[in-house]
Write a structure and sequence with these properties.
By secondary structure, the protein is α+β, with helices and mostly antiparallel strands. The protein folds into four domains: 232 residues, 2-Layer Sandwich (Cytochrome Bc1 Complex, Chain A, domain 1); 128 residues, Cytochrome Bc1 Complex, Chain A, domain 1; 204 residues, Cytochrome Bc1 Complex, Chain A, domain 1; 199 residues, 2-Layer Sandwich (Cytochrome Bc1 Complex, Chain A, domain 1), CATH 3.30.830.10. Helix content is 40%, strand content 19%. The radius of gyration is 27 Å and the shape is globular.
Length: 916
């Protein structure tokens, strides 16, 4: 195929992907797609194995094996692969397990093509050489911590798991979902690992996709070098599992540590890409695809019995799952939700959706198709998905065609045939005591590694021990915006990004929580939410319908400093979409009925905030750091009293004084020219005028808690949510760039000291990370994550040991270089979507960094050395100034802290108030 600048091209508005597919002699499938928009290459490997290939007693094994793949290989010692990727400037570095596949991916600068292939080939051919009981035991701890964090300590996590237990019999591969049980994870042994590897992790069961800035001839040569000698395995065992049939409704009530009842309704539906699959996608959107959907309008808007409602078609190879999920408002029940949903299901089964409903669904899906193709990593994953599930990497046009062919009657017939009451599972998640079953003990950690436990599949090749050098690096070129101002003072920033026909816009207005009146915490957030609830010419529902009709997405949210209005749309619909944004910011209605709906929504959201340990930790940490009277020391939702007291006059006064064009910037990134943008923005926003004088006082002085440790009691919590905080520099501070390098050493990267110690060495957590959170006038330093309840104090002690270490002496040169390069060389990969470009540029404007901040950032990062990083750690990460917030079972964790001497201890409630 001829070389081309881009992998994506469109004909008559339909995108397709240019690629080449071939197969090595050992069975490895290779798919190559050149895309020279950015100096990046996405490496994406799919192993065609997941829970669908598991057997009873080994649930969660595919996911456990995914973790083992990162534990090291014969020529790359444990933990080094991630460091190498970081040091090369890699982004999107991860692996995931889904029901039908396991994938491993990262994106590297284009001069590291050979490095990426070296890493991926060593994982494929030589990972099993390094697996022993020590490696297995460590990853069992990590996966069990992930289960605690994502299922047991996550509101409704065990309820959602019960959905799959009810849909599928125990001998079905999908029964245990992806994570599996503690008992099965802990029972896995080296024999299971070896058998799984020999069977499924072979070239003949994998597909390698490269997308990005490379030449195919060179890529083919290197792929042959690194992968051709890996031996194929036996034929992959076929999976012949019939889709279960439900003859009568299955019902179950599951108690969980939650505040609000939640309803799950689930059905078996046609497998992925089979007739009826796309129709169920449209049915999900029409029923609960946002504010324009039927269930939102009925349950959330009209009857106001639900806090939220969603619907989805989870398309899978052995049969898909259609799921409706609805959370009740306080004072309402799951039964009420079920009755209302059944009424809407009956209507859709009896009469086809309107042409407008179908158009909204189709436009939204087509926008999503384009959005998934902005990143080279997105293109790579799309090629791999089509290759496995449709048997054709070039299925994109056929995929779009099947959605375009759907008629209203098709959706009605699909709902009538598939979503019958007798064929479903109904699960109520209700407040109560969690039943996690008997505790599965964690065995003592094994001793030293035993080489006799290891096996090899491929003969060693000594040359593989040599890490490839990179080609000459290209000069870093980051997106640079061009600015103009409207006559009303609005700053407009244009960042051209030719490619897929999409445009993203971010309007950032300096109207955040810092402007909240003392008696109205949460007012900025309340006002931002009301912007989506109607204008002078559009009701709330008309606004939602108009956005959906364009296939656009629109959101509003208030931060500490600003309110952000974000918009994404197809280029062809951008003028109409920007008209909606302008209408929202210039003519909000603040209708009394909508205020009351939003009031109830915010009160319920406050209850939901209490359910999440990590969300609670964030709220309490802010209160402990800034003090109860500081605008940053409160939840963005405010308090229950403030929510009840907020009036229309309060909202109008805030909007009139704070929403001002001279105090705002509109950043637009995408496939649009400057001349066209000026014309559109002038037509839509030149008439915007401030409605009242600006009201903004000085930011109050923060009053940090005097306690070293703050406890919030969550009885029976299997994990403790930690948040450790102190003050940090503001956004425009000269140390911001240097701190990213220092923090990459301490806790910012996956391979950083804190995460490595707590996850890979101790097995206390699924992940704990640190970051700086600069604001316009202040900032914070934050360490956060969840740890095993019985290891809470030990985890905190280890965190402080790592802090002492990073403050004691300069990082070794190799560690420092990895940290700095991870921040410097990864910069192009952080600007590969319109939304990311717009958001980053808007943040630079908001924090007074200058719109040339990112253009100058590479030089600032290069100027940081190990001595500078040491000084920054000593300046900004001071143990005596850090406040530890722990949200967990007080009865279990308080004695640990007392024994460790981590005092004084202060107890606070879920809202951050001190408990006397």
């Amino acid at each position: 195929m001829a070389n081309t600048a881009r992998a994506i091209h469109t004909e008559n508005g339909v995108p397709s992907i240019r690629f080449e597919k071939y197969k090595l002699a050992n069975g490895l499938e290779v798919i190559l797609a050149e895309d020279h928009r950015l100096p990046l290459i996405a490496f994406n490997v799919w192993y065609h194995v997941g829970p669908r290939n598991e057997r009873p007693g080994l649930t969660g094994f595919a996911h456990l094996f995914e973790h083992l793949m990162f534990a090291g290989s014969k020529h790359i010692v444990r933990g080094e692969a991630d460091k190498i990727v970081d040091g090369a400037g890699g982004t999107d570095n991860n692996g995931t397990t889904d029901f039908d596949r396991t994938n491993y991916f990262f994106t590297l600068p284009s001069n590291r093509l050979e490095l990426g292939l070296w890493i991926k080939s060593d994982m494929m051919g030589y990972m099993i050489d390094e697996v022993d009981q020590v490696a297995l035991a460590n990853q069992q701890d990590v996966v069990r911590n992930e289960r605690r964090q994502r299922i047991e300590n996550q509101p409704y996590g065990i309820v959602e798991e019960a959905v799959f237990h009810s849909l599928f019999p125990k001998d079905h591969p999908y029964y245990a979902s992806v994570m599996g049980s503690h008992a099965d994870i802990q029972a896995a042994n080296l024999g299971n690992v070896m058998n799984f590897s020999h069977t499924y992790y072979r070239p003949n069961n994998a597909t390698l996709v490269l997308v990005g800035d490379f030449k195919k001839a060179r890529a083919k040569q290197l792929i042959e070098k690194y992968f051709a000698s890996l031996s194929a395995g036996d034929a992959i065992p076929a999976v012949n599992v019939a889709q279960p049939q439900i003859a009568s409704e299955r019902r179950k009530v599951v108690e969980d540590r939650v505040e609000l009842p939640r309803l799950y309704l689930a059905w078996h539906t046609p497998p992925i890409f089979k007739p009826g699959d796309a129709e169920m996608d449209f049915a999900a959107f029409i029923l609960a695809g946002g504010k324009s959907s039927r269930l939102y309008k009925t349950l959330v808007y009209d009857k106001q019995i639900a806090q939220s409602v969603t619907a989805s078609q989870q398309s899978l190879s052995l049969g898909s799952v259609f799921l409706i999920e609805a959370t009740a408002r306080p004072g309402h029940t799951a039964e009420e939700l079920e009755n209302a949903i059944d009424e809407e299901l009956a209507k859709l089964a009896a009469a086809p959706p309107s042409a407008a409903e179908l158009a909204r669904a189709r436009n939204t899906y087509e926008t999503r198709f384009f959005g998934g193709l902005e990143k080279v990593s997105g293109i790579a994953d799309r090629l791999n998905a089509y290759n496995q599930q449709a048997g054709d990497p070039g299925y994109l046009q056929k995929d779009i065609a099947r959605y375009r062919a759907i008629k209203p009657d098709d959706v009605m017939r699909a709902v009538s045939a598939q979503l019958g009451k007798s064929a479903r599972v109904a699960i109520y998640g209700v407040p109560g005591k969690q039943d996690l079953g008997a505790e599965v003990p964690t065995p003592p950690a094994p001793g030293k590694s035993d080489p006799a436990e290891r096996v090899s599949v491929n003969a060693d090749q000594a040359w593989r021990s040599q890490q490839p050098k990179g080609d000459r690096a290209l000069a870093l070129a980051l997106p640079a915006g061009k600015t103009f101002k409207l006559s009303n003072g609005l700053t407009v920033v244009h960042v051209a990004n030719p490619g897929v026909p999409l445009v993203s816009a971010t309007l950032v207005v300096r109207a955040g929580a810092r402007a909240n009146p003392a008696q109205r915490p949460g007012l900025a957030s309340f006002t931002a939410a009301m912007l989506q609830e109607g204008t002078a010419k559009r009701s709330a529902l008309e606004l939602a319908d108009d956005i959906a009709a364009l296939g656009a997405t629109f959101s509003t949210i208030a931060s500490h400093d600003d309110t952000w209005l974000t918009l994404d749309s197809l280029k062809s619909n951008f003028p109409a979409a920007l008209d909606i944004l302008a209408d929202v910011v210039m003519h909000p209605a603040f209708a009394d009925a909508e205020i009351e709906r939003q009031r109830k929504n915010r009160s319920a959201a406050l209850v939901q905030q209490h359910e999440s340990p990590l969300a609670t930790a964030a709220v309490v940490a802010a209160a402990a750091l800034y003090g109860a009277d500081h605008p940053y020391g409160k939840s963005s939702l405010g308090s229950e009293d403030a929510i009840k007291a907020t009036s229309r006059e309060d909202l109008l006064a805030f909007w009139r004084s704070q929403y001002r064009p001279e105090n705002a910037a509109l950043v637009v990134s995408g496939n649009i020219g400057m001349h066209e943008l000026k014309r559109i923005v002038t037509a839509k926003l030149a008439a915007w005028k401030a409605a009242a004088p600006l009201k903004e006082g000085a930011l109050p002085q923060a009053k940090k808690s005097g306690a070293r440790l703050v406890l919030v009691d969550k009885p029976d919590a299997p994990q403790t949510a930690l948040r450790i905080v102190s003050f940090g520099p503001k956004g425009a501070d000269k140390d911001v760039a240097g701190n990213t390098v220092m923090n990459a050493i301490l806790g910012g990267n996956f391979t950083s000291r804190i995460n490595h110690t707590l996850r890979e060495v101790k097995g206390y957590t699924y992940g704990v990370y640190s970051r700086f959170a600069p604001e316009r006038e202040t900032g914070a330093f934050v360490i956060s994550g969840s740890v095993r309840a019985d290891a809470t104090a030990s985890a905190v002690e280890d965190i402080f040991k790592e802090i002492d270490g990073v403050r004691a002496k300069s990082a070794p040169l190799e560690e420092f270089d990895v940290a700095r390069n991870s921040q410097l060389l990864s910069l192009p990969g952080l600007f590969d979507t319109n939304a990311e470009i717009a958001a980053s540029t808007a943040l630079a404007w908001s924090q007074d960094r200058g719109l040339d901040y990112y253009a100058k950032l590479p030089a600032k990062l290069i100027a940081v050395d190990a001595a500078t990083a040491l000084k920054l750690a000593q300046k900004y990460v001071v143990p005596g100034e850090l406040v530890v917030v722990a949200v967990g079972d007080k009865a279990k964790i308080a004695p640990q802290f007392e024994k460790a001497g981590i005092v004084p201890i202060e107890v606070r409630d879920l809202d951050g108030n001190v408990v006397k």
